[in-house]
Design a protein that fits this description.
By secondary structure, the chain is an alpha/beta fold. 39% of the residues lie in helices and 25% in strands.
Length: 421
């Protein structure tokens, strides 16, 4: 892909995310991988684009390697003893400072936040385990964090947190990231993993998953092991108000940028309602610029006739647009002539032409026309009618069209296709 084309494609995402808050959570394993330096470079890119970044890191492998024996885990959560807490207190500050050093090398301004912005309590493992240092976050001071973000700082958090009395706890880093993201009303919470995302039983990436689908995938054994608590964390974040959660491969160079600035992304996106992610709606006045660029592109590629800006503006109320993750990628118009209607300006962005979007748009306006009492619908095209043939249309005589449309296409080689609704 050529650089100018690439820049045009990422511009809508830059506009969408600039000024928004994104929480990034790394596992302890991510910190040890060679690709971690590339992630730091990518963080400098998104920060330069105006995205406000908060970092949370885990330390599972480092803690395990420093302990004389494996910790007791209850439902996958480490029950931290006093002896283990001593190790954690000596280990985690070094990891956090190492991340801070990496960020400074990229001319960024990290800040290691004190625990006073949290309210933490001892996690309840039941009466058999009354004494331990595993904590649970109950409150995060969002305004304090937002103030730091507005100053251009990048807050860094580790799982080592103390309460108001100075009693230290080890908290689950995924849960910590969730509580921070919810308190900040973050646009996105992104988990770095050591796999590409959620994979189906054939090993293929599942790009988008709804909250409803998670339990279904678990029942089907598509997700298991460490992916289960991570997805439960995503559920908690989304129900708490975070718009999107993502699981990306921390071992893959550029995974973060690809996930943020391309339609297909690089990992799995988790959201509440898939219909919000991808849907057809009526065009608004603010859509004109993007919509007209789509029409222009399709005129250049020989798919549509030329329409002036004035013509499109005048008839904007007739247009529908297809959105994917709040980005317009296609359009169509529906114009009424008494008991019949015309579908026109059916177009998509070039790299979406094989995604079935035109078919969805056509079905949408057919449904709309039928609901309005329209008996038949027609389309005038400069191309062969294969697409309309497949959609159930047939070539019809020109003299069946409204007189105004007959005059418009007089002397042209355009073909007319019609369909009874």
């Amino acid at each position: 892909m050529k650089t100018p084309t690439l820049l045009r494609e990422v511009l809508p995402y830059i506009r969408k995310f600039s000024g928004k808050i994104i929480v990034l959570k790394f596992s302890g394993k991510n910190l040890e991988e060679e690709n971690f330096e590339n992630i730091m470079a990518d963080i400098s890119v998104i920060h330069a684009l105006g995205i406000r970044v908060v970092l949370v890191h885990g330390a599972g492998p480092q803690i395990e390697a420093s302990l004389p024996q494996h910790s007791l885990k209850i439902n996958g959560v480490r029950m931290t003893t006093s002896a283990e807490m001593e190790v954690i207190q000596s280990l985690l500050p070094n990891l956090t400072h190492s991340i801070s050093t990496h960020l400074r090398e990229w001319k960024l301004s990290p800040v290691i936040f004190p625990s006073k912005i949290f309210r933490v309590i001892q996690k309840d493992f039941g009466k058999d385990y009354p004494h331990h240092h595993t904590g649970e976050i109950t409150k995060v001071s969002g305004p304090t964090l937002i103030s730091a973000l507005e100053d251009g700082l990048i807050p860094i958090f580790s799982p080592l947190v103390s309460d108001e009395n100075g009693y230290f706890f080890n908290v689950n880093a995924d849960e910590l990231a969730v509580e921070i993201a919810v308190a900040l009303k973050a646009k996105k919470l992104i988990f770095f993993s050591d796999v590409q995302g959620i994979l189906d039983l054939s090993g293929n990436l599942i790009s988008v998953v709804s909250l409803k689908k998670i339990s279904e995938l678990q029942e089907q054994k598509v997700i298991s092991g460490g992916m289960i608590p991570k997805l439960h964390a995503c559920q908690r974040a989304i129900t708490g108000g975070v718009k999107r959660c993502h699981i990306v491969n921390g071992l893959q160079d550029g995974a973060l940028l690809t996930e943020l600035f391309t339609r297909d992304g690089s990992g799995t996106m988790i959201l509440e309602d898939p219909n919000v992610y991808q849907h057809v709606r009526m065009a608004h006045r603010d859509d004109f610029g993007v919509l007209y660029r789509i029409l222009e592109e399709n005129v250049r590629d020989g798919y549509l006739r030329y329409r002036s800006r004035e013509e499109v503006k005048e008839h904007l109320h007739e247009y529908f647009v297809f959105e994917i993750d709040e980005q317009i990628v296609g359009c169509v118009s529906l114009r009424y002539f008494g008991e019949i209607a015309e579908v026109g300006a059916l177009a998509t962005i070039s790299h979406f032409r094989t995604q079935g979007i035109a078919k969805i748009l056509l079905e949408k306006v057919e449904q709309k026309a039928k609901e309005s009492g329209i008996k038949s619908i027609f389309a005038v095209t400069i191309l062969t009618g294969q697409f309309f043939d497949i959609a159930g249309y047939q070539e019809i005589p020109r003299d069946t069209l409204p007189l105004s449309r007959q005059k418009d296409i007089q002397g042209t080689s355009k073909k007319v296709y019609g369909k009874n609704l």
